[in-house]
Structures are given as structure tokens and as C-alpha cells.
Write a structure and sequence with these properties.
alpha/beta, about 40% helix, 6-stranded mixed beta sheet, 23 helices
Length: about 675
């Protein structure tokens, strides 16, 4: 490296620490990439590959770059291609440094750790999944959506359960211990890992003592037992690998991840990988689209948070009668009060994605516009709480009682941040007038410089009686008071001589000197002070992240309940009687998705009775295109909808709790378009 420039030496040293990433190396107003990174990135991004001064052997050094202020779209394309990107920033002010500016990697963006809103699908979680197994018969799974702070952990004890859970989570990136590279256990994952970004971690990371230190450091607890994770041995190590990965990539405290939620698959209706696909729960078989799936029908939410919540409910139907009835009671109350339901949905429609705003603000990547979006959302909470007041169902009452109006946060942002701030923090104009006295004074100096000088000149003329007195400025001497020699006898004692000319004398006063210091540095000081004040406001908002997260979750739930009530009203659904009897009875049931599609034929309702005595097995017969597959899926979907907490397409429905659904029928059907396997 002795033959390369100091700048390239710095680049190569940093790149050596992040060999599996594309390094965005900040040079002025650009992120530059060099050598292999430049070659790869130019192809993915379809940007021009150029070169700079040659290597010692006479070859060119490939390079390309993107503007730092509009780098997010390029970053998104690299991550979408499965690449990791290390963001290397200047951490010193070039104006105060001689030689090479110090640079450091401030964040590593990976497919599973995306924060920027434009790089995320609003109603989809972006999961990082960690897996760990000691012997292959029990697997720990931990999933994190860093954009929302959701962090969950579980264990499964069969290969089929492992694959089903991975398909359900649909992660963007998976963390695996290095020892699995050559393990036969990897073979069972091939069907679901293909095409996903895999990050291999060193085996020493999966150590119980190290895991405990990571948990206590992140969550401030004495042991993982305090979080309910003590019994999940594999799950604990899978989760600690996530915390280690965050530590290595985010380079800062991830403050909005304040806890971890253990869960078991026994809490939910079991749906294997094939059943999920064949029932088209979240995407169609033919085109892999949300529209035409059960989720596409049920999602009437008006917020991104609600959209993610309803998808979770569809992926994880409940098996607890009490919890299901709690949801159904909430839906029924909103169904029976259409005016209140419309008011709630109207208010929620103006709420931004509080979960992801909270994540960006907590990780210091949120800008002034994020704070304004949070303020606009929080200002709707008082009216929402009024609309929820007097609720009768337990779930709505709990949401009303647990939703923090966050008045203090909204007030802080309203006082501190202008209503329409610029995109770039360093452009200034972010902090509202009246928030900080010194900033207001500096702005006044900057805006009223000429007026101040004119007023001061008039004041000094009046005070001294010298009508020819002038206040002037030049780059060499700055501001000064010029008095002709004929008028020197009228000079006050507090004038300080600065320069003698042939026909005049130049003076300075303490007042003029203070003004000069202010006006000459006002713009720079305004920018620095604004940025400092903005950082303070952002940190104070970030400190309330746990409160914001709880409120956001409550808003997501009310959004889902109101949306399900709206759907039930529109489609004429009935409330299912969910109980623990060993019987399913559906009167005039309809396939929810087929019924809602724009087919020319009328859907003919069907009855079904299943129990554990005389009706354990039903044989469905009929000619091709008679609707056998539709009927069988219809029973499964009505049952599943009931256990999600939704009203169902039937005249009456009694659903005894089901713990598992299997289906392999009609693998090539496209029921939403009236197409059957045959």
C-alpha cells in the first residue's frame, strides 16, 4: 500500500474491515466506490464506471459514485440485489483538519436491517431471522423488524414446523452459525433459503454467557429469565445473535428495541407451508400477488401499521376462545356503530407510520420531516380517544385506556420544528422561531444586518453630533466607524482607534465589534446551532420510544378491528359462534375471495357439518368445474377467518376451535378468476 495515495490507503484499510460489503466512501458531496465494489455496483445500479489515478502497475483504479443527498434509491437497489452496504462518513470537519479527514463506518445496511421508508413496503414487515440448533431436533428462531422494533423468539421441534415458520415469517435475511456451512442440517433449509441473503456468524457468538451479557446490556435486566426467555435455550442464542449483529452493523444503541416477546406455535392454528400456499392466505398461487388472496380481502386498514397487523393476524390465527371472542366483540361493537367507525377510520387515515418513524428517530436516522409527521399523527390522538370513549367491549376499552396521547411529545415537536422543514438538516430553517433565544437573535442579525447598521449609524450621529460619520465594512478590517479629521474632536472616549488615513480616522466600538462577530459568523453559527437543537429534540423524542411504540400498536389494532367491521358491513358477514365444541356447522357459507371477485356468475351458498362422531369425513363428488375445490377451501377459510377474529361469509357459523388445517387441493386453481385445475 506504500504506492497508493493517502486517501486510497484510508479506503483500503476501511474496506479490509468490511470485506463482504460495498463500501460507500464519503468524498465531499458523493459516496464513492472503488475497485471491485465499483465494478459490481455500476452493473447493479446501471451507472457509469470511470477510473482515477493508476495503480503502481499502471492499471486504472475503477470507480463510480452517487450523490450523498440522494443516495437512498441507489442503496435500495443494492440491498434489493442482496448486497450489504457499509456507509463510511467523514467524522471530522474538513475545515479544521490538515491532511486526510478521518472517516468511519457509521452503519451497515443489510437486506434484513433496512430503515428508510422509501426502501420498505408500507404494509409488509422486513424481518431479519436468526436460527440456531445444537443437535438439529430443536431449533431456536428469533425475528426482528428493526424498522418497527418488533422482536420475537420461539423454539420449534420438528423440521416441518421449522419450514412452516420460516415461510410464515418470510425474512429478507437469515443469520446462521458458521458451523452449519458443512452440516447436513442445511439441506432441510434449502427449499426456503434459496434466494435469501444469508449472513454467517462465527461460532463463538453462540455462547450462553455472551448471550446473557448482550441481553442485560440491551434490556437492562439481570438475566434473560426476566424477559421470559430463560427456558428457550436455542431461542436465547438465536436472539442473542441478532443483538450481536445489531451491535456490529448499527454502531449505536438501538434504543427502540426495548424488549423481546417469547411465543410458542401452540398459541396459534398450525398451517404448514403447502397449506398456506394452497389457501392463498397472503398471496395468490398464480401471480404471487396480494390482490386475490385472503389478506387482500381482509385488509381494509388505512394505516401502514394496521396493514402489518392484519397480516400477522392472518398468518397466526388464534386457538384461544377467550382471545378470539375479545376480537369479535370489538368488531361487532364497531359494526353496530357505523358513524363512530367512519370517524375512527377518517382520523386514522391521517396517521403516519408511527412504528417506523419511531425506529428512524431512535436510530438517529430520522429527519425533521419525520418529526413533523409524528407531530401530525399525535395531534389526532385526542379526537381518537374521544371516539373510543365509552366503549363496551373489553378490547376497545383496553385500547382506550392504554393509548398514551403523548401530548408532551407533540408539544415539543410543535414548539421546536417548523411546519414545513427542508429535507437536508444542514440547510437550516428547521427550528421554529421562538424556540431558542440565541437562535432568534442570530437570525435577526442575519436578516436585519443592513437595518442594524443603518440604525447604529443614525444613533452614533445623534450621540456625537457628527453628521458625516459613516459605518462601513471591508474584508480586511471588518466593520468600522469612519470620521473625517475635521470632526475628531467630537469622538467619544469609548471609540477605539483602528486605522489612520490621510483625511480620516477609523474606529471600532464594543457594540460594533460584538455585532461583527455575530454577523460574520451568523450563518455558520445558525446552521450549527440549529443542528444541535434538532439533535436535542430528536433525542428527547427518542427517549419516549417505548410510549410511542405502545400507542402505535394500539392504533394498529383499532385500525384492524374497524377495517374488519367495515368489511363485514359491506359483504353481509355474520358473527361466528366460536367455542370449544368438536363441531363445525356453517349455514349458507360462501368462499370469501371468490364471492368478492368480479365474476359474472352468482355464488351459490353451501352448508357443511363436521364433527367427531357421525361427520368426521365428508366425500365431495361432482363433475369437473363443479366447485369441489372451492367448497373445501371455503370451509377452511371460514374457519380460519373466525379464528383470526373476523366475521365470516355465511348466514350462520358455529366454529369449534381447530388446531390445524391441511389442504393439498387444486394446486393449479385460480379461483379468483374462476379457473380450476381441470
Amino acid at each position: 500500500m506504500s504506492d497508493v495515495t493517502p486517501m486510497m490507503r484510508q479506503y483500503l484499510e476501511i474496506k479490509a474491515e468490511y470485506p463482504d460489503t460495498i463500501l460507500f466512501f464519503r468524498l465531499g458531496d458523493f459516496y464513492e466506490m472503488f475497485l471491485e465494489d465499483a465494478v459490481d455496483a455500476s452493473k447493479i445500479l446501471d451507472i457509469t464506471l470511470t477510473s482515477r489515478n493508476r495503480n503502481a502497475d499502471g492499471t486504472d483504479i475503477p470507480m463510480c459514485g452517487v450523490p450523498y443527498h440522494s443516495a437512498n434509491p441507489y442503496l435500495a437497489r443494492l440491498v434489493e440485489a442482496g448486497r450489504k452496504v457499509a456507509i463510511c462518513e467523514q467524522v471530522e470537519d474538513p475545515k479544521t483538519v490538515k491532511g486526510i479527514v478521518k472517516r468511519e463506518v457509521v452503519r451497515v445496511v443489510t437486506p434484513g436491517l433496512v430503515l428508510d421508508a422509501e426502501n420498505l413496503s408500507p404494509k409488509e414487515n422486513n424481518y431479519l431471522l436468526s436460527l440456531f440448533s445444537r443437535a438439529g431436533d430443536s431449533w431456536g428462531l428469533a425475528k426482528l423488524d428493526i424498522s418497527t422494533g418488533e422482536f420475537r423468539v420461539t423454539e420449534v421441534h420438528a423440521k416441518e414446523s421449522l419450514l412452516a415458520e420460516i415461510v410464515c415469517i418470510a425474512p429478507r435475511e437469515i443469520l446462521l452459525p458458521g458451523e452449519l456451512r458443512e452440516s447436513p442440517l442445511l439441506a432441510c433449509l434449502k427449499t426456503v433459503l434459496d434466494g435469501l441473503a444469508i449472513s454467517w456468524l462465527d461460532d463463538w457468538i453462540y455462547d450462553t454467557d455472551y448471550a446473557t451479557r448482550l441481553f442485560t446490556g440491551q434490556f437492562g435486566v439481570h438475566s434473560p429469565d426476566s424477559l421470559g426467555c430463560g427456558a428457550l435455550r436455542e431461542g436465547l442464542l438465536a436472539a442473542s445473535a441478532v443483538l450481536h449483529y445489531l451491535k456490529e452493523t448499527q454502531k449505536s444503541v438501538v434504543g427502540h428495541i426495548t424488549g423481546i416477546t417469547p411465543y410458542t406455535t401452540a398459541e396459534f392454528l398450525v398451517l404448514d407451508e403447502s397449506t398456506r400456499r394452497n389457501l392463498e392466505l397472503t398471496a395468490t398461487l398464480a401471480e404471487n400477488r396480494k390482490k386475490g388472496s385472503l389478506l387482500g380481502l381482509l385488509d381494509r386498514t388505512v394505516t401502514a401499521m394496521g396493514g402489518r397487523k392484519i397480516k400477522q393476524w392472518v398468518n397466526y390465527p388464534l386457538v384461544s376462545v377467550e382471545k378470539i371472542r375479545e376480537r369479535l366483540n370489538g368488531v361487532e361493537e364497531l359494526l353496530n356503530d357505523p358513524a363512530r367507525r367512519r370517524e375512527i377510520l377518517t382520523l386514522l387515515a391521517g396517521v403516519h407510520d408511527l412504528e417506523r418513524l419511531n425506529g428512524r428517530i431512535s436510530l438517529a436516522s430520522g429527519g425533521a420531516k419525520d418529526l413533523v409527521a409524528m407531530r401530525e399523527s399525535l395531534l389526532r390522538l385526542p379526537a381518537l380517544l374521544v371516539a373510543l370513549g365509552g366503549s363496551e367491549s373489553a378490547l376497545l376499552r383496553r385500547i382506550h385506556g392504554e393509548t398514551d396521547p403523548l401530548d408532551d411529545v407533540a408539544d415539543l415537536i410543535a414548539r421546536g420544528i417548523v411546519e414545513n422543514p427542508p429535507f437536508l438538516l444542514r440547510d437550516g430553517g428547521i427550528i421554529a422561531d421562538g424556540y431558542h433565544a440565541e437562535l432568534d437573535e442570530l437570525r435577526a442579525v442575519s436578516r436585519e444586518g443592513k437595518g442594524f447598521i443603518a440604525r447604529l449609524e443614525a444613533q452614533e450621529k445623534s450621540r456625537t453630533g457628527i453628521n458625516s460619520l459613516k459605518i462601513r465594512y471591508n474584508k480586511v478590517f471588518g466593520y468600522y466607524i469612519e470620521v473625517t479629521k475635521a470632526n475628531l474632536s467630537g469622538i467619544p472616549e469609548h471609540y477605539i482607534r483602528k486605522q489612520t488615513l490621510a483625511n480620516a480616522e477609523r474606529f471600532i466600538t464594543e457594540e460594533l465589534k460584538e455585532y461583527e462577530d455575530k454577523v460574520l459568523n451568523a450563518e455558520e453559527r445558525i446552521a450549527d446551532l440549529e443542528y444541535s437543537l434538532f439533535q436535542d429534540i430528536r433525542e428527547r423524542v427518542a427517549a419516549q420510544g417505548e410510549r410511542i411504540a405502545r400507542t402505535a400498536d394500539n392504533l394498529a389494532t383499532i385500525d384492524v378491528l374497524a377495517g374488519l367491521a367495515d368489511l363485514a358491513h359491506e359483504q353481509g358477514y355474520c358473527r361466528p359462534d366460536v367455542n370449544e365444541e368438536d363441531r363445525i356447522s356453517i349455514i349458507e357459507g360462501r368462499h370469501p375471495v371468490v364471492e368478492a371477485s368480479s365474476l359474472s356468475e352468482r355464488f351459490v351458498p353451501n352448508d357443511v357439518l363436521l364433527d367427531t362422531t357421525e361427520n368426521q369425513l365428508l366425500i365431495i363428488t361432482g363433475p369437473n368445474m363443479a366447485g369441489k375445490s372451492t367448497f373445501m377451501r371455503q370451509v377452511a377459510l371460514i374457519t380460519l377467518m373466525a379464528q383470526v377474529g373476523s366475521f365470516v361469509p355465511a348466514a350462520e357459523a358455529m366454529i369449534g376451535i381447530v388446531d390445524r388445517i391441511f389442504t393439498r387441493v387444486g394446486a393449479s386453481d385460480n379461483l379468483a378468476r374462476g379457473q380450476s385445475t381441470f
